[in-house]
Write a structure and sequence with these properties.
Layout (H helix, E strand, L loop, with lengths): L1 H28 L6 H4 L18 H25 L1 H28 L7
Helix pairs in contact: 3-4
Catalytic activity: a quinone + NADH + 5 H(+)(in) = a quinol + NAD(+) + 4 H(+)(out)
Family: Belongs to the complex I subunit 3 family.
Organism: Bellilinea caldifistulae
Protein backbone atom coordinates (compact mmCIF):
# COMPACT_ATOMS: atom_id res chain seq x y z
CA UNK A 1 0.00 0.00 0.00
CA UNK A 2 2.85 2.39 0.83
CA UNK A 3 4.35 1.78 -2.61
CA UNK A 4 1.28 3.36 -4.23
CA UNK A 5 1.92 6.64 -2.44
CA UNK A 6 5.70 6.71 -2.88
CA UNK A 7 5.70 8.85 -6.08
CA UNK A 8 3.40 11.35 -4.39
CA UNK A 9 5.66 11.55 -1.34
CA UNK A 10 8.72 12.03 -3.56
CA UNK A 11 7.02 14.93 -5.37
CA UNK A 12 5.96 16.46 -2.05
CA UNK A 13 9.50 16.18 -0.67
CA UNK A 14 10.94 17.78 -3.83
CA UNK A 15 8.42 20.63 -3.64
CA UNK A 16 9.31 21.34 0.00
CA UNK A 17 13.03 21.13 -0.76
CA UNK A 18 12.76 23.50 -3.73
CA UNK A 19 10.72 25.90 -1.60
CA UNK A 20 13.40 26.00 1.08
CA UNK A 21 16.14 26.44 -1.53
CA UNK A 22 14.33 29.40 -3.10
CA UNK A 23 13.85 31.05 0.30
CA UNK A 24 17.51 30.48 1.16
CA UNK A 25 18.64 32.00 -2.16
CA UNK A 26 16.46 35.03 -1.51
CA UNK A 27 17.99 35.53 1.91
CA UNK A 28 21.54 35.08 0.61
CA UNK A 29 21.30 37.21 -2.52
CA UNK A 30 18.47 39.60 -1.58
CA UNK A 31 18.82 43.32 -0.90
CA UNK A 32 20.63 44.17 2.31
CA UNK A 33 20.35 47.96 2.33
CA UNK A 34 16.71 48.93 2.77
CA UNK A 35 15.97 52.50 1.80
CA UNK A 36 12.66 54.31 2.23
CA UNK A 37 12.08 54.05 -1.52
CA UNK A 38 12.73 50.29 -1.54
CA UNK A 39 10.57 49.69 1.50
CA UNK A 40 7.60 51.71 0.19
CA UNK A 41 4.54 49.65 -0.77
CA UNK A 42 3.88 49.31 -4.48
CA UNK A 43 0.38 49.09 -5.89
CA UNK A 44 -0.17 49.24 -9.65
CA UNK A 45 2.44 51.94 -10.18
CA UNK A 46 0.55 54.44 -8.04
CA UNK A 47 1.98 56.26 -5.05
CA UNK A 48 0.14 54.98 -1.96
CA UNK A 49 -1.84 57.48 0.07
CA UNK A 50 -3.31 57.29 3.53
CA UNK A 51 -2.75 54.62 6.13
CA UNK A 52 -2.60 50.96 5.15
CA UNK A 53 -5.38 50.11 7.62
CA UNK A 54 -8.28 52.25 6.49
CA UNK A 55 -11.94 51.34 6.52
CA UNK A 56 -13.28 49.60 3.45
CA UNK A 57 -16.85 49.66 2.28
CA UNK A 58 -18.83 46.51 2.97
CA UNK A 59 -19.80 46.53 -0.71
CA UNK A 60 -16.27 45.48 -1.61
CA UNK A 61 -16.63 42.29 0.42
CA UNK A 62 -20.18 41.71 -0.83
CA UNK A 63 -19.04 41.90 -4.44
CA UNK A 64 -16.15 39.53 -3.64
CA UNK A 65 -18.49 36.96 -2.04
CA UNK A 66 -20.91 37.18 -4.96
CA UNK A 67 -18.05 36.72 -7.41
CA UNK A 68 -16.87 33.60 -5.57
CA UNK A 69 -20.44 32.28 -5.45
CA UNK A 70 -20.97 32.63 -9.19
CA UNK A 71 -17.45 31.41 -9.92
CA UNK A 72 -18.13 28.18 -8.02
CA UNK A 73 -21.41 27.90 -9.88
CA UNK A 74 -19.45 27.79 -13.14
CA UNK A 75 -17.44 24.84 -11.79
CA UNK A 76 -20.67 22.95 -11.09
CA UNK A 77 -22.17 23.75 -14.50
CA UNK A 78 -19.03 22.72 -16.40
CA UNK A 79 -18.68 19.44 -14.52
CA UNK A 80 -22.40 18.80 -15.04
CA UNK A 81 -22.02 19.46 -18.79
CA UNK A 82 -19.27 16.86 -19.01
CA UNK A 83 -21.52 14.08 -17.67
CA UNK A 84 -24.86 15.32 -19.05
CA UNK A 85 -25.45 12.30 -21.30
CA UNK A 86 -24.93 9.91 -18.41
CA UNK A 87 -27.32 11.84 -16.14
CA UNK A 88 -30.14 11.89 -18.62
CA UNK A 89 -33.36 13.88 -18.30
CA UNK A 90 -33.36 13.83 -14.51
CA UNK A 91 -29.90 15.43 -14.46
CA UNK A 92 -31.07 18.07 -16.93
CA UNK A 93 -34.06 19.05 -14.80
CA UNK A 94 -31.94 19.01 -11.65
CA UNK A 95 -29.49 21.47 -13.19
CA UNK A 96 -32.33 23.65 -14.45
CA UNK A 97 -33.70 23.87 -10.91
CA UNK A 98 -30.22 24.76 -9.65
CA UNK A 99 -29.84 27.48 -12.27
CA UNK A 100 -33.29 28.91 -11.56
CA UNK A 101 -32.54 29.13 -7.83
CA UNK A 102 -29.20 30.76 -8.62
CA UNK A 103 -30.83 33.26 -10.96
CA UNK A 104 -33.42 34.15 -8.32
CA UNK A 105 -30.54 34.86 -5.91
CA UNK A 106 -28.83 36.94 -8.60
CA UNK A 107 -31.97 38.99 -9.26
CA UNK A 108 -32.50 39.48 -5.52
CA UNK A 109 -28.94 40.79 -5.10
CA UNK A 110 -29.42 43.04 -8.12
CA UNK A 111 -32.73 44.49 -6.85
CA UNK A 112 -31.24 45.11 -3.39
CA UNK A 113 -28.43 47.12 -5.00
CA UNK A 114 -25.67 44.68 -4.03
CA UNK A 115 -24.09 45.01 -7.48
CA UNK A 116 -24.02 48.82 -7.49
CA UNK A 117 -20.62 50.36 -6.91
CA UNK A 118 -20.83 53.95 -5.70
Amino acid sequence: MFEDYLPLLVILALAVLIGFIVILLGVLFGPRRPTPRKMAPYESGMVPYGPGRRRMSIRYYLIAVLFILFDIEVVFVVSWAVVLRQLGTLGLFGMLVFLVVLEVAHLYAWKKGALEWD
